[in-house]
Amino acid sequence: MSDAESIMNAAQEVSPKAADQLVQAVYQELRRLAASKLAKEAPGQTLQATALVHEAWLRLVGDEKRRFEDRTHFFAAAAEAMRRILIERARRRRAVRHGGEYERVYLEEDMLAGPADDEQLLALNDALQKLELKHPIQAQVVKFRYFAGMSNAEIAELIGVSLSTVKNYWVFSKAWLFREIKRG
Amino acid sequence: MSWPFQPLISPVHRWGVVLNWQRGVYDEARGTYVASWPDDLMNGSEKTELDLFTEAVQLPVESRSAFLEAACGGDAELRASVEALLKAHVESGEFLEQAPAEVKAQNAQPGEKVGERVGRYKLLQQIGEGGCGVVFMAEQEEPVRRKVAIKIVKPGMDTKTVIARFEAERQALALMDHPNIAHVLDAGATESGRPYFVMELVRGIKITDHCDQSALNTAARLEMFLDVCDAVQHAHQKGIIHRDLKPSNILVTTLPSGKPLAKVIDFGIAKATTDQRLTDKTLFTAFELLIGTPAYMSPEQAALSSVDVDTRSDIYSLGVLLYELLTGSTPFDTTELLKRGLDEVRRVVCNVEPPRPSTRLSTLMAADLTTVSRHRQVEPPRLIRDVRGDLDWIVMKALEKDRARRYPTVNGFAADIRRHLAGEAIAARPPSTLYRLKKLFTRNKLLFCSVGIIFLLLSTALIVTSRLLIQERFARRQGDLFRMEALADKLEREGRRDEALHKRIEALEVRAKLFGSEEPPPAEWLNNVMGTLVPQNQYDEAETVLNKLLPPAATRNPRFADVIVFRAHILACRGKWAEALADARLVLQYRPSEANTYHTLAPLLVVTTNLEAYRELCPKIVDRFRGVTDPSAADKMVKDCLILPDSGADLLSVAAIAETAVTAGKGMNMYRLCEFCKALAEYRQGHWSEAISLATDAAQESWPYAQGESLAVLAMSEYRLNQVADARADLARCEQVVQEQMPRFGGILGYDWRDWIIVQALLDEAHDLIKGQTAPGKSLPPRQAGQGQKDE
To answer: What are the C-alpha distances in Å from B310 to residues B188, B396, B588?
Structure first.
């Protein structure tokens, strides 16, 4: 039994501590996974956060046919872990970019989408925190879908509402976040 | 307590425990995890916002307003809030629908750092960073101590392939030796497995920035561009294609002497790092990772369809660079296009003709144009004038979509620029009008086709209407003509012959105009006119009418036989023997049975001395008129057959016809004429006495020509009987008649022209006989009467 599995088994005991431990474990695994993949992957390979999460699931648990509860449980943790990773990276890159520690001489038009993506991600994170204060469930739906790549059906099963309700929440959250980012 | 999310706290879903790990509390009593809800959730208004939004968003757009009106009541704030959400919903589009950005960049930071070693190079300072990778200034210690630039390629590439590709081209790269080329010295892989390239260190700025900062004018920019061309040409000669020429790869450095020097960097790197089997899926990444901007990419590179990138792709990129040096912008704003997707970039680069540089300058906003001009130290109008024409064509030729239409070599491109600088004619001629039309057609097929169809319809309609118009005009004129002709008929019936005649001539002229000169008027009309004019001796006028209205071809038409008869008469009356003879011969074809036909032909043959033909004709006359009963016809035929002594006619047969004339003509006005014909017949037979008796009687006829004829025969008969004195006296009388009564030949002989010919012929014969010489005042051409006698 792997570490992750033992943690998950512990999490089944429904302890907040265990849950946090799970997030930490997944977080470490995701970081390690991303770094190794980036160094070795084939040219043109795009590493997407959601794909990483799925791969992490396979690596940590190693069984596609794992119980559904395990799977959704894991993804819920992974969504949070992934969010943290992305936000950390974006913040760090911004700091470097604005710090001007290097004299940039050329290749400047090569700086493409990165900065814009980072700003967007950070803005989204801020807005998401505000949404969480007012509509925690709806904010959670966003995290599941956006950061862990979960399907509506998985989310519905996980939080115990109908599929159409998940869809409604998603539409509402999207509009709410969009309004918030535009306003901000 | 009405929990909207009741299921969350259901024990069944204990996995929910991790969901709100941030702010959740563990409910010991229920043995489950409970989210801590914010207080304001309970006041109902938020719930309403979510509910209202959810309900409203499922309604059709037009009904939402009414729904909110009813649902919100007086709560304006709530309503505004929901409406803002609805608006955001409409605008949000793809927001959050794509998974978050790649995490690719996170490894760039933990990568190589200043102070570390990469291979045998020590990283000194980072001097550049971008999508392509990070560039460091580094120090090489072995085998020589020198400073170099190291470009460490971003992750995401197959290091082995990149290095292998570079190695494949390494020898060719080593062969390049050009002051404007920065050497690529080495390549390898870092410890973390990323490929890097070691290059000659160039401390410079982009060529475009240099030109603007130094405010180079157009000529100076062209000179600098020519240096770049030299460098690229050199590389092409060594078999190296750059594939990624753009300002950031062409740096201008300042030599110790202060002279600027352009250096092309990154030769060989694009080939090594560009996956030749680029697919759509990876291209986006490729743009970001390697190319940065597709602005300088040739259509064949952008299309991806052809992987055989060749030197002409570099020429295209150079064309883009020149475009930018001249105008301050690239032909297409690809960064903007890229936001609309790859297909849009591809469509524009491959299909859209960019504006010419001068057009681009003219369409710049005033402020931009001023900036561009200041960077080139000229006034805006002068700048546009400099670029218009030659430079437009040169740039556009380099930017041709079809690479076969571009300059075949960089040298050709550079040579054209040199020619422009020297004021010579450039090779990049404007594309032919046909070529441009073809382009225009392919771009606007629908427009062209519809215009073509409209044009076709219009011209068909035009043709049809003009034909109808012509027909209508023709019919109207025809109506006019018929009215004129009817009027002429009417006048004729009323006896106003002169007016009728003029009206008729007028009508004939209209007819000639209407039907063209090839279409003759009806023969009867011409006959009518002739029948009016000829009896009035208006021969000139009659001839004019015929010349004008009778086409030459019409004389071959038997319908015009009568008109020809008239014409022969008109011509003969005025001594135009040759022309008259031609008509007379025609008449013979049309009217072989009429006496008048021969009465015209025979005298004319005599007077034109066509004696062979005359002698052939006479026996035919005799054969045809052997049994004639009409005294007038008999008279004429006898005379015609006996004009000359040796006519070839059987004299006995002629005598029989003469007998008919005398017998049938007895008691008629013309009896004396008949007597003369018998006298002539007797004379020709050698019956002198009978001839004298008949001729004496006939000489009493009042017609002058009849007197002349009779006196000539009388004189000759008397001479034969040795009554010489009488003969001389009668000959003198005959001459007197001719001199006094006969109109001169060549003048108007009038209706009796035939008999006057006969008179003259007989008189000549008498003269020869009696005096042995031709009569004085003879105007017939010398005839060979003597010959005939000798033949006898």
So the answer is: 26, 19, 91
- At CA B654, angle to CA B650 and CA B657, rounded to 5? 150
- Joined together, the tokens standing for residue B447 give 């427009």
Distance, in Å, from the CA atom of B182 to the CA atom of B202, rounded to the nearest integer, reads: 7
Q: Which domains does chain B have, with CATH numbers?
A: 6-92 (no CATH), 117-435 (1.10.510.10), 592-791 (1.25.40)
Answer yes or no: do B7 and A34 touch at CB < 8 A.
no
Hey, what are A40's tokens?
């070795």
| Structure-token pair, residue B777 | 């005042």
Number of structural domains chain A divides into: 1
Cβ of residue B53 closer than 8 Å to a chain A Cβ:
yes
CA distance linking residue B282 with residue A110, whole number of Å: 17
* Residue B156 contacts A where some CB pair is shorter than 8 Å: yes
Which residue in this structure is represented by tokens 């859209």?
A: B352
Give me B15's structure tokens.
């996995």
Contacts of A48 in chain B (CB under 8 A): 99-100, 102
pLDDT band for position B462 (cuts 50, 70, 90): very high
* CB proximity A172 to B under 8 Å: yes
Per-residue confidence (pLDDT) for residue B716, from 0 to 100: 92
Half-sphere exposure of residue B635: CA atoms within 13 angstroms, side-chain side:
22
Interface check for A23 against chain B (CB to CB < 8 A): the answer is yes
DSSP per residue, B27-48: ETTTTEEE----GGGGGSHHHH
Assigned token pair, A178:
């969009």
Query: Taking phi first (over 0 means left), then psi (-120 to 50 degrees means alpha), and beta for anything else, what does residue A107 get?
Result: left
> pLDDT tens for residues B329-378?
889 887 677 666 667 777 888 888 889 898 888 887 777 888 888 888 88
Nearest to B102 among A46, A134, A171 (CB): A46
pLDDT per position as a tens digit, B77-130: 888 888 888 888 887 777 777 666 544 433 334 456 777 788 888 888 877 765
Domain of residue A116, residue span: 3-183
Measured in whole angstroms, the distance separating CA B723 from the mean position of its chain's CA atoms is: 94
The set of catalytic residues of B is: 244
The residues near B640 (Cβ < 8 Å, ≥ 6 apart) are B598, B599, B602, B603, B618, B621
Q: Which residue has the tokens 């071809």?
A: B553
Which tokens belong to A58? Answer: 């396979």
A22 Cα to chain B: minimum distance (Å): 9
Peptide bond into B38 cis (omega under 30): no
